[in-house]
Amino acid sequence: MVGIIIVTHVSLGEALVSCAQHIMARDLPNLLQLSVSKADEPDDVVRRANEMISQLDDGSGVLLLTDIYGGTPSNVAQRLVRAGKVEAIAGVNLPMLVRTLSYSHQALEVVVSKAITGGLEGVLYMLPDSAQE
């Protein structure tokens, strides 16, 4: 099963994990999160992330989901990418995470594709319900 690590600023990852557990209503043993604060040294964060990768990787690979591209969490994730073994996506949102978890039994390249489409399809402009007007 593909391992998933959420690498985000402060407590965003914790909140995403909590919401995913609520929505999926099951244990998520292949999901970890790594919080990054301004006080953290990037090399220390990379070391902790590598430990998590080793913990989760059963040979299926690991997907890193990070919040905003260009921030410390995504810069750390980028340093960890190993094509076909450790992949990374910036712009994590709850629809992306749920889709990723739902397909984590598939091959890593499938999980990456499903994560991106889940994230994109989860962003919608909501119009007023015409029945309420």
TrEMBL record:
Domain PTS EIIA type-4: residue ranges: 1-123
The UniProt record lists the keyword Ribonucleoprotein: no
GO molecular function, one term: kinase activity
Location(s), subcellular: Cytoplasm
Keyword field contains Transferase: yes
Top-rank taxon, per record: Bacteria
Gene3D superfamilies, sorted: Phosphotransferase system, mannose-type IIA component
Pfam families given in the database record: EIIA-man
Keyword annotations from UniProtKB, A to Z: Cytoplasm, Kinase, Phosphotransferase system, Sugar transport, Transferase, Transport
One of the GO BP terms on file: phosphoenolpyruvate-dependent sugar phosphotransferase system
GO cellular component: cytoplasm; membrane
Name under which the protein is recorded: EIIAB-Man
